[in-house]
């Protein structure tokens, strides 16, 4: 397993982490992702640890806490061997203060996550989204308190725009508060928006990217093919709810090239799509998912090799997106 730094920090992490959105499946939305129980989760974590993956990513909103509970049960007795990231901000109830990044909500959310995970500290605590109704300084002072109290070790942001993240970094620097060291965001061969605003900002500020949904919401697993009906599974059953739209012809052109490279390299389509991401030097980690052992083992085989320059060039070309303004104007 290859290790990189967690963004702008000294923490060494594997380039892959296991996402636990499939743990639980206790509501209709997350049931489409998976329904992994504690026994199955323990087996997936056993396999991961055997192969050097010791980083597990969850969130309080995943199955409304069930994912954290199952992860906590699966790592019981070996907390010192794993790195855990979880998140807060999105709604956990029906009351007005059951969501957001206020001091009131975050302190309660962190305490609840600690209980569900069965631990007394969170390695990486992400703000799952930007709360426009709470002053940035209030959120950062609360996170600074959680770090100084020992309940959180590093903080990160997820799903922020570039200006929201830059504003947060500036406020933290001005007030000598704990800074975000890592950004978790969507990035894939069929979703390269990240490269236009966020990537140059992360490069400038020295942060790293932790990629979620590296297979484009399940569209780059190798199961979807040109002129073939959708196979049974997450995509066909409604797993694209909330996913960014992708034009069919664009998707199939990318898949055509992936399949060609798969034949030439002997690798799986999904493995090539993830390996392409690992060639980006702003990527600290890629969150992989797995509904079963077979999927996990396949995704773990994306390290230890690199795509050839000509393969990278083909993938870059076929997946290229038209820049948004003002990026098409160019730099001087």
Structure description:
The protein has helices at residues 28-31, 38-50, 66-74, 103-117, 136-148, 162-174, 198-205, 248-265, 269-278, 293-300, 309-318; strands at 3-5, 12-14, 16-19, 55-57, 83-88, 122-127, 152-158, 180-186, 208-212, 283-288. The chain is an alpha/beta fold and 332 residues long. The chain has one domain: TIM Barrel, CATH 3.20.20. An 8-stranded parallel β-barrel has the order 3-4-5-6-7-8-9-10, surrounded by 6 helices. Helix 2 (38-50) packs across helix 3, helix 4 (103-117) packs parallel to helix 5 (136-148) and helix 8 (248-265) runs antiparallel to helix 11 (309-318). The chain is globular. The termini are far apart. 45% of the residues are buried. The mean pLDDT is 93.
**How many domains?**
1
Q: Let me know the average pLDDT.
A: 93
Largest sheet: 8 strands, parallel, barrel
State the end-to-end CA separation.
Answer: 40 Å
* Number of H- or I-type helical stretches: 11
CATH architecture designation = Alpha-Beta Barrel
Output the structural class. Answer: alpha/beta
Which key features would you list for this structure?
11 helices, 332 residues, alpha/beta, two-stranded antiparallel sheet, 10 strands, TIM Barrel, 8-stranded parallel barrel, globular
């Amino acid at each position: 397993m290859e290790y990189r730094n967690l963004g702008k920090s000294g923490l060494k992490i594997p380039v892959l982490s296991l996402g636990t959105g499939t743990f639980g499946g206790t509501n209709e939305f997350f049931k489409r992702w998976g329904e992994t129980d504690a026994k199955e989760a323990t087996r997936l974590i056993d396999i991961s640890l055997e192969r050097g993956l010791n980083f597990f990513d969850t969130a309080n909103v995943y199955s409304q806490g069930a994912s954290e509970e199952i992860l906590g049960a699966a790592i019981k007795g070996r907390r010192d061997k794993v790195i855990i990231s979880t998140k807060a901000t999105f709604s956990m109830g029906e009351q007005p203060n059951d969501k957001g990044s206020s001091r009131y909500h975050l302190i309660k959310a962190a305490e609840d996550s600690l209980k569900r995970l069965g631990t007394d500290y969170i390695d990486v605590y992400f703000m799952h989204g930007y709360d426009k109704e709470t002053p940035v300084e209030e959120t950062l002072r609360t996170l600074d308190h959680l770090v100084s109290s020992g309940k959180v070790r590093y903080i990160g942001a997820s799903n922020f725009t570039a200006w929201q993240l830059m504003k947060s970094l500036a406020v933290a620097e001005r007030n000598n508060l704990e800074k975000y060291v890592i950004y978790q965001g969507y990035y894939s061969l069929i979703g390269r928006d990240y490269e236009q605003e966020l990537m140059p900002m992360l490069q400038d500020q020295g942060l790293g990217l932790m990629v979620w949904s590296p297979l484009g919401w399940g569209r780059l697993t190798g199961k979807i093919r040109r002129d073939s009906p959708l196979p049974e599974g997450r995509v066909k059953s409604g797993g694209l709810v909330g996913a960014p739209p992708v034009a069919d012809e664009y998707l199939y052109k990318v898949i055509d090239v992936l399949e060609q490279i798969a034949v030439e390299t002997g690798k799986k389509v999904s493995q090539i799509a993830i390996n392409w991401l690992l060639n980006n030097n702003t990527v600290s980690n890629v969150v992989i998912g797995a509904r079963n052992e077979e999927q996990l083992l396949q995704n773990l085989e994306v390290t230890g090799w690199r795509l050839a320059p000509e393969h990278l060039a083909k993938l870059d070309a076929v997946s290229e997106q038209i820049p948004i303004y003002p990026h098409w104007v160019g730099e001087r």
